[in-house]
Amino acid sequence: MATRGHDGPAKDPGLALVLTILGFFFVAGLQYFYLGKILKGVLFLITLGFLYVGTIISLFTIGGETRRVNAERALGMR
After folding, report:
1. Percentage above 70 pLDDT, the chain
2. CA dist., res. 56 & res. 70, Å (int)
3. pLDDT in the model for residue 2
4. Which residues does residue 9 pair with via DSSP β-bridges, in sequence order?
5. In angstroms, rounded to a whole number, what is the distance separating the alpha carbons of residues 53 and 67?
6. ∠ CA(31), CA(69), CA(75), 5° rounding?
7. Pairing with 15, which of 3, 47, 67, 69 sits 20 to 30 Å away (CA)?
8. How many helices, marked H, and strands, marked E, lie in the chain?
9. How far apart are CA 46 and CA 56, in angstroms?
């Protein structure tokens, strides 16, 4: 895992995927809390991942979102 200096290590897409899968069994939205997207995490939490439809979509999109967050952190935007 590469370090980013002052803002810590890069976010791991594998861990984000595992947290997404855990949303089916435990707490929906953990992947967004991990990525620092607190509002989206809260929305997933109180709506059960938009009745699991959002969680299913996240299975396919979380890798790209993780890469986007890492790129923004590298540029100092996050």
Report:
1. 90
2. 22
3. 56
4. 3
5. 22
6. 160
7. 47
8. 5, 0
9. 16
Tokens 């855990």 locate to 22
**CA-closest candidate to residue 76, choices 4, 9, 13, 11:** 4
Q: Does residue 54 surpass a pLDDT of 60?
A: yes
**pTM confidence score:** 0.87
Looking at residue 77, what is its pLDDT? 83
Residue 31 burial by Cβ neighbours in a 10 Å radius (0-12, 13-18, 19+): buried
Cα–Cα nearest to 50, from 9, 74, 42: 42
State the Cα–Cα distance between residues 3 and 29, nearest whole angstrom. Answer: 25
| Lowest pLDDT segment from 31-40, 47-56, 69-78 | 69-78
